[in-house]
Design goal:
- There is one protein chain.
- The protein has one helix and 26 strands.
- The protein is mainly beta.
- The protein has one domain: Jelly Rolls (Sandwich), CATH 2.60.120.10.
- A hairpin with a 4-residue loop joins strand 8 and strand 9.
- GO terms for molecular function: metal ion binding.
- It comes from Streptomyces antibioticus.
Length: 321
């Protein structure tokens, strides 16, 4: 998924200096961003208060949107580097195309995982014949330096492992949780899990104390460690937890995101994750010249034009503002 902000602000994130070493309850409110077509997203990361959770560096939540008479998601070809994109749906379908030749319709609770490596481009759109509702999340995972120049590739996994408890089904989409491991390729110690809770469920989910965590509320009424978390918001939990209390006041859907705090400092701008302003400038120039990122075939429309770079140089700010 693209960051369609026409004036994206460069930021430096990562590093352990701003990791909260103990359990906390920090509620993150979203910023509303128009994505393309009739889709508006709620952006949780990067946030005014926090830029990363483990290697998770970008989180958008959208829907549920009634797109019965709308085109739905329409995101033209755009570039990525230095990251993985994770597509996750609760309702609807998204058609993915990329410059490696991948063509895949992603459906609810199926993992669409694109590793950009050194450079890739892709498009995302609702199929012309699509379901009435569209509801999901798009996320980015920052690649560590040792793997950020890897060959670009796309993975689709329709059969994912689950962890169950009375009233809870946790689908592991990336990394591992309670002994269950996703088939998706991960480059850092990480976890991404979709949590479906039945009304009245009161459960404690096992966690890794060395990971930092956040919980994105997708639907329903739920208390996370006693804190009400409304759909479209996220609760940052810090580190040092061995379990997470969850109580569902109604049927509810959550996403658990976590991982070891990301040690490297990153520069994020538009759809690029690099290590310096010079890398970002070069990536933008390559995209505008038609170099390096390849071509997406089959999308009916022109690729996105990169926004202008800001005049001011980057200033390191760490994991939080």
């Amino acid at each position: 998924m693209s960051n369609l902000d026409r004036a994206p602000v460069p930021s430096v994130c990562g590093g352990r200096g701003f990791v909260v070493a103990e359990p906390v309850r920090e509620l993150l409110s979203p910023r509303h961003v128009k994505l393309g077509g009739s889709t508006e997203v709620r952006r949780l990361l990067p946030n005014l208060g926090r830029r990363m959770i483990g290697a998770w560096a970008f989180v958008d939540h959208y829907g549920p949107d009634d797109i019965a008479d709308e085109p739905g998601m329409q995101v033209p070809p755009h570039p990525h580097m230095g990251l993985q994109t994770v597509s996750w749906l609760h309702e609807g379908e998204v058609l993915h195309r990329d410059s490696t030749g991948s063509l895949q319709t992603i459906r609810p609770r199926e993992l669409g995982l694109m590793t950009s490596g050194r450079a890739i481009s892709h498009s995302e759109e609702s199929p012309r014949s699509h379901a009435r509702f569209l509801h999901g999340a798009q996320l980015w995972v920052a690649l560590p330096d040792a793997h950020r120049h890897t060959d670009p590739h796309f993975e689709h996994h329709a059969d994912l492992p689950t962890v169950t408890a009375p009233g809870l089904t946790a689908t592991v989409l990336l990394g591992g949780l309670d002994g269950a491991t996703s088939p998706g390729t991960a480059y850092t110690p990480i976890v991404g899990a979709d949590l479906a809770l039945a009304r009245g469920t009161d459960v404690r989910l096992p966690l890794e104390p060395d990971f930092e965590y956040g919980v994105l509320a997708m639907s329903g009424e739920v208390r996370v460690d006693g804190v009400p978390v409304l759909p479209g918001s996220m609760l940052y939990l810090g580190c040092g937890r061995t379990e997470l209390p969850l109580r569902a006041e109604s049927d509810a859907g959550l996403m658990l995101l976590g991982g070891e705090p990301f040690e490297e400092e990153l520069v994020m701008w538009w759809n690029f994750v690099g290590r310096s302003q010079e890398e970002i400038v070069q990536a933008r120039e390559d995209w505008m010249k038609g170099d390096r990122f390849g071509e997406v075939h089959g999308y009916d429309g022109a690729p996105l034009t990169a926004p202008e770079l800001p005049a001011t140089p980057l200033k390191p700010r760490g994991r939080v503002r």
